[in-house]
TrEMBL record:
GO terms for molecular function: peptidoglycan lytic transglycosylase activity. It comes from marine sediment metagenome. InterPro entries: Lysozyme-like_dom_sf (IPR023346), MltB-like (IPR043426), MltB_2 (IPR011970), Peptidoglycan-bd-like (IPR002477), PGBD-like_sf (IPR036365), PGBDSf (IPR036366), SLT_2 (IPR031304). Pfam families: PG_binding_1 (PF01471), SLT_2 (PF13406). SUPFAM superfamilies: Lysozyme-like, PGBD-like. This is Lytic murein transglycosylase. Residues 373-428 form the Peptidoglycan binding-like domain.
Amino acid sequence: MRHPFHRRTGIHLLASASLFCLTACADTPAIAEAEPAKPTTLQTAAQVMVDPVVMVRSFDDWRADFRAEALAQGIDPQLFDRAFAGVTPDPDVIKADRSQPEFSRPVWTYLEGALSNQRVSSGQRKLDEQRTQLDRIEQRYGVDKHILAAIWGLESNFGQNMGNRQVIRSLATLAHEGRRPTFAHDQLLGAMDILQHRDIEPERMLGSWAGAMGQTQFIPTTYNQYAVDFDQDGRRDIWYSAPDALASAAHYLQQSGWQTGQPWGQEVKLPKDFDYALADSSIRKPMQQWAELGITDAKGSSLPASLSEQSAALLLPAGHRGPAFLVLNNFRSIMRYNNSTSYALAIGLLSERFQRGGQVLGSWPTEDRPLSRSERTELQTLLSEQGFEPGGIDGIIGANTRSAIRRIQQQLNWPADGYPTPELLEQLRRL
Ligand code: CA
């Protein structure tokens, strides 16, 4: 019985169809998201609908239970009381937790923000400022310092924007009445462990509304597993020590299978009449085999022979009309940090922009309008009605939905890229 306080006594959770998703569910994540997403005026009534979580138990009762549990796990009572002094539920956190934006940015718009000139020049300056430490970190963990700087830049704008909310208050709010109370409860216990370890004082433990902390935006359990004290002052300080933050990110990537000296991937060019159904993250082939299928680098030259044995997947972030990329194992390590292909692509390209590369040669299909959340839900409903089994009806285009889209595209004799478009939705409405 790990969580005795999660008995349903006195708590009525009304079921809801929407997905419980704290971070990194969208294809295009927010950049250095520190503040709750503001609802757009274009939201439809369906989207404003929130999970009707009715809490009978008061925050004070919840805190008393949580205190007993934390103390039973060895948390010092004085520390607990200091960390919770004056803590009340944060209404902004609840609002952010329940907001589900109707419209998402297309990948090219996301990349434009992620790879802005300002971010590139700040990154180059930071790489210069932290050169000695970054070289040492690269040597110790075997992770490319440009990748580390790119993560630093996207997670917290190089430490400028780590979120200004008290982590304990945010997580307590979410553990009490968030959409994923068990997850938040575990993170809150993890945060108490960090305080007990004296890595940071409660007042200086800042993060995003979702409890992502410091310059690396680690959640507490990730911190407890991977954070390191690189500057050796006795504290693992991902908030106010850039070397600690960067080394912690390097340690996390190393433990996520980072392969030293390998690229994340590269842009490629596909031959005419290519079978787009091969662009699926579950289909991995040695680069040599992709070359045999006629794939070249973005300029039309042969793929690098040095990588011919390396396993790669073909990524079409905007469908067959947009640029194509072959992504290697390190791309998957970046996705362990943030489970979004757009994010991993942004990190790879940003790391190259710091070195005056990273330009995408293919053109983005900017005339394509991305589907809204309600359209994506409708698409899934129609796919399901037609027997194409898209997985859940949740408005999120995951692997099952992509493969359902491919199957109907194949049946229609369309390019089977698994990419949802308004044309496909129109077609399905007519079936
Ligand atoms: Ca330190």
